[in-house]
Amino acid sequence: MDKKHDYVLQFKDVSFYYDQPHYILNKLNFQVNKGEFVSIVGASGTGKSTIFRLLVGLEQPTEGSIFLNGYEETNRLGKVGYMPQKDLLIPWRKIAENVALPLEGKNKKYDKQLVLNRLKDFGLEHVYNKYPHELSGGMRQRASFLRAILTGSDLLLLDEPFSALDAMTKLYMQEWLLEQWNQTKSSIVFITHDISEALFLSDKVFVISETPIHTIEEINVPLKRPRSRQQLDEPSLINLKNELIDYFKMKVT
């Protein structure tokens, strides 16, 4: 089998700018393996969201190619699941109608029972008929994640999805996300500013240190799965976390 098909995502010599010649990405190469959980960390303004805009298909590379499952894709809209920082649930649509949006785009006569079954899987069966404003922040994010999954894509992009939640809800949602990921076996690319969150969730952490982005430093997280928060107290993890914090302190001072 061609080795490239081991990748669910690959950037090959990708460059991008909004205003020439101020590149945000310059000949960037990286890949994400199938079934892998990767977090991207970096200071604000270093280009993390631009990478997501390219992945989703809202932008196109100035140069280079983006591959999904081994094939170059120039029309990526709708081919990857996307969960933004804000849930962006449509306020006048009920929860079942919100999560079904990807299915509506493919088939007006989608299986409504499938939606109800997936809501049950996500612990949302009792709120299927409610509106977004009637739900807690954690429930809204669960609905947003389900909507991303129902795109049918094996690549999910999560852009700081828990940053607006209170501390306890955020911890719960991190553990819940790992449970869902373990069941779906999707590949996840996750943007966060929280180093502890990145280490707890991820197989790898991609560190972006400067703009334009020429390279991404890849850090393998030395934790076995399944994960527990107690593992974050292991000396190797504490040292790695402190190294990353010190590194970013140097970048902003």
Topology:
Elements: E1 7-17, E2 23-33, E3 37-42, H1 48-56, E4 63-68, E5 71-72, E6 81-83, H2 95-99, H3 101-106, H4 112-121, H5 137-149, E7 155-159, H6 167-184, E8 187-191, H7 195-201, E9 204-208, E10 217-220, H8 235-252
Parallel strand pairs: 3-8, 3-9, 6-7, 7-8
Antiparallel strand pairs: 1-2, 1-4, 4-5, 9-10
Please report the number of helical segments: 8
The major pleated sheet works out as:
6 strands, mixed
State the helical fraction: 25-40%
Strand content: 15-25%
What's the helix-strand series?
A: EEEHEEEHHHHEHEHEEH
Arrangement of strands in the largest sheet: 6-7-8-3-9-10
Distance between the termini: 48 Å
SSE-based structural type: alpha/beta
Gyration radius, to the nearest Å?
19 Å
If you average the pLDDT, what whole number results? Answer: 91
**Low-pLDDT residue intervals, each spanning 5 or more residues:** none
- Tally of extended strands? 10
Shape: globular
Summarize the structure.
This protein has 8 helices and 10 strands. The chain is an alpha/beta fold and 253 residues long.
